Request: fold
Amino acid sequence: MFGSALRIVKSREEAEDIVHDCFIKGFEKIHQIDDDANLGAWLKRIVINKSLDVVRHKKKMIWVEETLLLEQENILIEDDIVPTISVEFVKECIHKLKEKYSIILVLYMIEEYNHREIGALLDLKESTVRNQYKRGKEQLLALLKNKEE
Reply:
């Protein structure tokens, strides 16, 4: 949960505060979940939602609606690049992206949300999420390739 918050807010202190607040909120509302529900997944969802709220409120982000047609994603990372790139370098590259791209990449690639779920979380059209994911992925790939040069 801390890792999820940290990847979204990019600040250790804020992520710690978010996780702390979410545990308190979770225990206050624990009576609302079903007996067969996954407590960990429920708490993680609270953390992700709170992290996104913090980003929205703090940065007052403006999400631009984009209506461009999407092409099939044909971008592949070549096999010879992958072994030479560290996880830390990938994290650094994700943090260098515009916030709207890094949040969508983190939610899709790491937290395993689909485009529809991300759109609902961020109050965006699914097509906008797909487009921003595609652009963020292209920019991330460019940053990763620059390391090789």
Summary: Confidence is low (pLDDT under 50) at residues 61-82. The first helix runs from residue 2 to 9. Helices lie at 2-9, 12-28, 39-59, 87-96, 99-110, 115-122, 126-148. The chain is about 65% helix and 0% strand.
